[in-house]
Amino acid sequence: MDNESLLNLAPMIGAEQIALLERLSNACGISGDEGEVRTIILEQVKPTVDEVRVDALGNVLAVRKARKETRLRLMVAAHMDEIGLILVEEEEGGLYRFEKIGGIDNRTLVGKMVLVGKDHLPGVIGARPIHLQEEGDDERAIPIDSLKIDLGPGGKAKVGDRVAFATRFQNLGVSLMGKALDNRLGVAALIELLKHPLEYADLCAAFTVQEELGGARGARVAAHAFNPNAAFALDCTPANDLPSWDGSENVTYNTRLDAGAAVYVADRGTLSDPRLVQHVLDTASAAGIFCQVRQPGGGSTDAASIHRVRAGIPSLSISTPGRYLHTPVSIVRLADWQSTLALVYLSLQRLTPDVLGQPR
Q1: Which residues are catalytic?
Q2: In this predicted model, what pLDDT tens digit does every residue of 180-211 receive, in sequence order?
Q3: Is the terminal CB of the chain with fewer CB neighbours within 10 Å at N or C?
Q4: pTM beyond cutoff 0.90
């Protein structure tokens, strides 16, 4: 089968998939309070899967059985939670102290519109105006304890309420922009994968919770429940492709936009299974899918937990690159997302017991 014929077997991203991503991006699903996103996922997958349930931690676990003979159980995980904030103390006049959930750069917070709690109360993250700050204060990030969420005198929230950024999704044609694209891109892709059953493998889909807190907590529970033969983590990874301030060449962690899906060899939490790495790269070559090898370095995905469950699960991460991740807004290329979806689907479809039977 030639490249074009093989690629034509892969799912495509169109208006329907982008509209779903918009819903997912605009939904609020801070770690530990992923209910809005979970509701959308269940609505989408129930008509197509053979089994679906929500576990005790809040993961959505769905199974689409093989169209023919079942030779493997393959897990694909995509975390549904996003970075955000949590209210920790009420002060006078509608002001609230807060803490961060997940890795957020304090420099991105001041003046941002937010949505508080399940009622999406509008608020703003406030700080002392720059012209009233002490000399030198404008040269460093403002400490978190000097920031407040301002709901106004009539705004009433509760300690423990999650706070999401109020960024709205935008389709820019070549690019997509919004909050929580890390990892609603993976969630939307996994929903699409479930609509296309594999020939010889059961697809075990885990929409996981609490990844942004570190430790990939939901993924550990999901992997234990599924006990798959192999696992893929679908995520979003930083594109470190902006020009450097001093003109020097970027030679480390050089994942970038417009270069396709990012295939992991190693990250902070996982040494990817080399058999799966080679299988995915061979699939990309066979189908003519453009992709890139993500440079080893910081960060990790659900694979960090999955590969250590039970007796060990061969695991690999494939991500869509995005700029400005872990801020109130990020941007990705539509073509990179399409590359990720096609590469994961064809890699799953072509994976056989012989691949996993090779020496590691």
Answers
A1: 211
A2: 999 999 999 999 999 999 999 999 999 999 99
A3: C
A4: yes
